[in-house]
Amino acid sequence: MKNQNHLFSLPQNLHYLNGAYMSPNLKSVEKAGMEGVLRKSDPTSIKESDFFEPALEIKSLFGKLINSPASQNALIPSASYGLINALRNVPFRSGQHGIMVSEEFPSDHLALRKICQDHKADLRVIPPPVFIKGRTLTWTEDIIESITEETAVVVMSSIHWMQGLKFDLKAIGEKCRSTHTYFIVDGTQSVGALPMDVQEFNIDALICASYKWLLGPYSSGLAYYSEKFNQGEPVEYSWMTRKDSHDFDKLTSYPEDYGSGAMRYNVGEFSNFIALPMLKAGLEQILKWKVENIQSYCFELLEPLRAFQKRKGLEMEDEVNMSSHLYGLFLPESLLTPKLKDDFKTHNIHVSIRGNFIRVSPHVYNTAHDIDAFIKVLDRHV
């Protein structure tokens, strides 16, 4: 795959290696958003069908990305919203517990903690191994071993959001299925840049904010809910999620029944006339590129960085167990100094530091020049 910087609106002389923080706009996404803003200047241009048909298109595009039927997908305003919609409908028996990994993203941790408190259930947090090399496989094994018939739910990110470790979701999903445990995955930091298959991985709910790897706008997202949730209780009671809500002549019949599949979990006013066209443009471009190609491009881009780590004798996980679009470079605390951080800023290098990891998160808008600039600064401090 060739570099795609020409399709983005990134400033020149900026080494933006921080897609895990927020994606830059594709020019097509930018254009769609501007056109969406202008539509409301003439409200007659917005027809009744526009409240529903664009949303169905986006659910279909998302389904192609994660191997799910469009009817089981929902439009959400945030990952935390999508997550609580799922967690509220997980049945807990007396004595059961929930499981998640340590240093999980705050929204995921806080939501599961609250649900466990409501059910008077334990929240069990699985810590990482103390070593770096081989951490992914051992951590995955520890998670699987912890799942029993008494585990009501496992909540985790598809990759570790700080370290970029690729958990074996298929093996974890198989264990959850065998113990009748709900498997809920936050895909915000991988879906759109790393292959995802909710059927193969036996995922019951997949939650994704759109402003990172889906290349969409902030305050929007997508979620998949398996058929287990089709009779669940949603967070809100919007008229738009009801059966036949597209028929405006029946609005005051106040139907009780929801639409089919996961329609009940759509956020109210899901037909956002600005955000949806932007999200659609992002999804279309990702599907055109293909996720596998994005990941391969990033893998090749990071080869000099992996070579640098080996040359310097830095601890590192095996490359096969690391994502390439979100790559956690481990440094001892003594090297993560304010001077290093300032040096990155001085040279217009944008990365995130999370714990003891420098989170390098490239995309197809990056070039070898960006990685070289990052390594050059790092080399002065390591």
TrEMBL record:
- List the InterPro entries: Aminotrans_V_dom, PyrdxlP-dep_Trfase, PyrdxlP-dep_Trfase_major, PyrdxlP-dep_Trfase_small
Q: What Pfam families does its record include?
A: Aminotran_5
Entry annotated with the keyword Transcription regulation: no
**Does the keyword Cell wall biogenesis/degradation feature in the UniProt annotation?**
no
Q: Which residues form the signal peptide?
A: none
Aminotransferase class V domain: residues covered: 84-242
Q: What is this protein called?
A: Selenocysteine lyase/Cysteine desulfurase
